[in-house]
Amino acid sequence: MSDVIQADKLRLLIERIERLEEEKKGIADDVKDVYGEAKGQGYDVKTMRKVVALRKLDKHVRDEADAMMDIYRTALGLT
Amino acid sequence: MSDVIQADKLRLLIERIERLEEEKKGIADDVKDVYGEAKGQGYDVKTMRKVVALRKLDKHVRDEADAMMDIYRTALGLT
Amino acid sequence: MSDVIQADKLRLLIERIERLEEEKKGIADDVKDVYGEAKGQGYDVKTMRKVVALRKLDKHVRDEADAMMDIYRTALGLT
Amino acid sequence: MSDVIQADKLRLLIERIERLEEEKKGIADDVKDVYGEAKGQGYDVKTMRKVVALRKLDKHVRDEADAMMDIYRTALGLT
DNA sequence: ACAGAAATAAAAATGC
DNA sequence: GCATTTTTATTTCTGT
């Protein structure tokens, strides 16, 4: 394949990445807006962030426990 | 307003944030996928990341320059 | 202060860091040895790593919960 | 050997690992402290990190060269 | 030995 | 402006 077409493929990949990164940034801004809204309604943002982090951590713990179960099952030949 | 409704509002805000965070994570995963695809096609991911970072920096520099131009224009009454 | 003495201070700081990094590497090697020893005694290393990770996660969750309590206390003016 | 004693051995291994991991974390924190101290004395931490990385690389290169020399020496019966 | 996953280290962004 | 948190990058580890 010619270098020109190769370069085009690379450019397309990079543009896809850049578009996704922009979307990601947009959503990050939305998150910030929601926190700002919450603050405007009198909620304590620091506490809210902690709540969100703690809920994520809980989910993570549950997922890990499930993974652990799978490992034990495999180790015991219970698949 | 009653505390119950207040708590509901808080819960809704937190759920909105969590949904946005999940979307964000989904997009971050998409980005990873595109890099993986690029790697599969023989591109060097580390270099690609540098390219993306450089282009972002360039864009930032250009945006700064544009903002500066606007300030001058306004200061000189050239809008 | 003269540049020479300044350079000496910098060198001392860097040497301290390098010594600490070496210690750290030594301990990381010790960890590897213990896993190797366990493997030699017939234990499944992958499962052991999961156990260690899960216990660390549990500790983290407890620490987070404590931090959460502090935040609530502060938010409610109960310090 | 009974399962009870086996479980004890496993527990001991895991506790040894956890103790080592804690030591490792302690040292990592010490490293952070030294960088903090350096910063407080006006040094540029980012640059210092680069210096440390470079010196590590140099050491690695020298060690490799030494190993190569040993190989040649042995091959030539010059031990 | 190498691909993929996980851990660690470094850099960047954010809030106070 | 500093310090803390998040994100990104690199290194390390494991299974094929």
Oligomer: homotetramer
Main sheet characteristics of chain A = none
> What does the average pLDDT of chain A come to?
90
Total helical elements of chain A: 2
Tally the structural domains of chain A.
2
Ends of chain A: how far apart? 47 Å
Number of E-type strands of chain A: 0
Helix content of chain A: over 70%
Class per helix and strand makeup of chain A: mainly alpha
Largest interface: A-B, 26 and 26 residues
Calculate Rg of chain A over CA atoms.
Answer: 22 Å
User: Into which percentage range does the β-strand content of chain A fall?
Assistant: under 5%
Spans of at least 5 consecutive residues with low confidence of chain A: none
Overall shape of chain A: flat
Along the chain, the helix and strand elements of chain A come as: HH
What does the model show?
The structure is a homotetramer of 79-residue chains. With 79 residues, chain A is mainly alpha-helical. Chain A has two domains: 1-43; 44-79. Helices cover 87% and strands 0% of the residues of chain A. The first copy, chain A, is flat. The A-B interface holds A 9-10, 13-14, 16-18, 20-21, 23-24, 27-28, 30-31, 34-35, 37-38, 41, 43, 48, 51-52, 55-56 and B 9-10, 13-14, 16-18, 20-21, 23-24, 27-28, 30-31, 34-35, 37-38, 41, 43, 48, 51-52, 55-56. Chain C binds a DNA duplex (16 and 16 nucleotides) through residues 28, 32, 45-46, 49, 53.
Explain the layout of strands and helices.
4 copies of one chain form a homotetramer.
Chain A: H1 3-40, H2 45-75
Chain C binds a DNA duplex (16 and 16 nucleotides) through helix 2.
